[in-house]
From TrEMBL:
InterPro entries: Rossmann-like_a/b/a_fold, TilS/TtcA_N, tRNA_thiolation_TtcA_Ctu1, TtuA-like_LIM_N. It holds the Pfam family ATP_bind_3. The keyword Protein biosynthesis does not apply. Zn(2+) 1 binds at C3, C6, C22, C25. ATP binds at A53, L54, S55, D59, I79, G155, D160. It comes from the Bacteria. Signal peptide: none annotated. This is tRNA(Ile)-lysidine synthetase. Keywords: ATP-binding, Metal-binding, Nucleotide-binding, Transferase, Zinc. GO terms for cellular component: cytosolic tRNA wobble base thiouridylase complex. PANTHER family: ATPASES OF THE PP SUPERFAMILY-RELATED (PTHR11807), TRNA-5-METHYLURIDINE(54) 2-SULFURTRANSFERASE (PTHR11807:SF27). GO terms for biological process: tRNA wobble position uridine thiolation.
């Protein structure tokens, strides 16, 4: 197969775009997709300060590098989760990557804050990933808000978005369906959230990271249990294989035609938010669920220490 741009030998075939690219031209395709996403969805401008959530995986690091190359004012934010034998490796990859590329980085330590994820796993009677995800979203938003950032960018790609949309649709989860999309505007103590990689598949992002020589953290989290999410991705992988372009059609069709209906539904039933009495984060009750989880873990831990 020949490169669709320069006619040299292609190394990446993209059936959904009826195209293929050589190692030099593929990053240009990637750049165009990110530019289109930012422009069409009005994600942010070159005058704004963007906080980029960096896990150390291929998507977040590829996003950070690409936004820097496009001249945006980006700062990385890594949350050190405090998972023994795992978190330090992810943190090191992020720190090395930011050093090597002269990128600004903030690191937030869950252990220093008083609630490492290993304590969540031990003392909270709920799936650890559900609580971990909630804690990460809480701190990303809080740090972006307190730091005066204009937007928080995450490395969610098309496969992530389609798997999430599919899961939300299977449950007809209207609050999540009304919120899902590449841009969530700022409101009620929440900063604007953007996903500039939403037009690019996991395969495309992995190729970009590889061709740019990005060293990624690829060890699975020892607490990972995302079985249904993985199943949905596999299912969509088969659909896409049989009918290239299906993923984007499904997601884009939802954004164009489905989302507004769910938003209208939620406007009638959505809860009113106010700042948490303790931490100031938006919540529908006096103290937010994060402050309550933290207190409950501290209580159980103290009781366990007393025997
Ligand atoms: Fe947190 Fe679960 Fe992800 Fe591990 S797999 S980082 S516990 S959400
Ligand atoms: Zn709180």
């Amino acid at each position: 197969m020949k490169c669709s741009r320069c006619k040299k030998l292609a190394c990446v075939a993209l059936p959904s775009h009826h195209a293929g690219f050589c190692p030099e031209c593929f990053p240009l395709f990637f750049t165009r997709q990110v530019e289109t996403a930012i422009r069409r969805e009005k994600m942010f401008t070159h005058d704004e300060r963007i906080l980029v959530a960096l896990s150390g995986g291929k998507d977040s690091l590829a996003l950070m590098l690409e936004l820097k190359l496009q001249g945006y004012d980006v700062t990385g934010l890594h949350i050190d989760l405090g998972i023994p034998d795992s978190s330090w490796k992810a943190r090191k990859k992020v720190e090395d990557f930011c050093d090597a590329n002269d990128l600004k980085l903030e690191v937030f330590e869950m252990e220093a804050w008083g609630l490492p994820i290993c304590d969540v796993k031990q003392y909270v009677d709920r799936p650890v990933c559900a609580v971990c995800g909630k804690l990460k979203r809480h701190h990303f938003n809080r740090i972006a808000r307190e730091g005066g950032y204009d937007a928080l960018a995450t490395g969610h790609n098309l496969d992530d978005e389609v798997a999430r949309l599919f899961a939300n649709t299977l449950r007809w989860d209207t609050p999540y369906l009304s919120d899902q999309g590449p841009v969530l505007p700022a409101s009620d103590g929440f900063v604007r959230k953007v996903k500039p990689l939403f037009r690019l598949s996991e395969f495309e992002t992995a190729n970009y990271a590889f061709l740019k020589g990005i060293e990624i953290h690829s060890d699975p989290c020892p607490y990972a249990s995302g079985a249904s999410f993985t199943n949905h991705k596999q299912l969509w992988g088969e659909l896409e294989h049989r009918s290239p372009g299906q993923k984007f059609q499904f997601y884009n069709g939802f954004l164009q035609r489905g989302k507004l209906a769910f938003q209208a539904l939620e406007k009638e039933t959505g809860a009113t938010l106010q700042p948490c009495e303790e931490c100031g984060s938006p919540t529908s009750v006096g103290r937010c669920s994060i402050c309550r989880i933290k207190e409950s873990v501290h209580r159980k831990k103290a009781a366990a220490a007393e025997g």
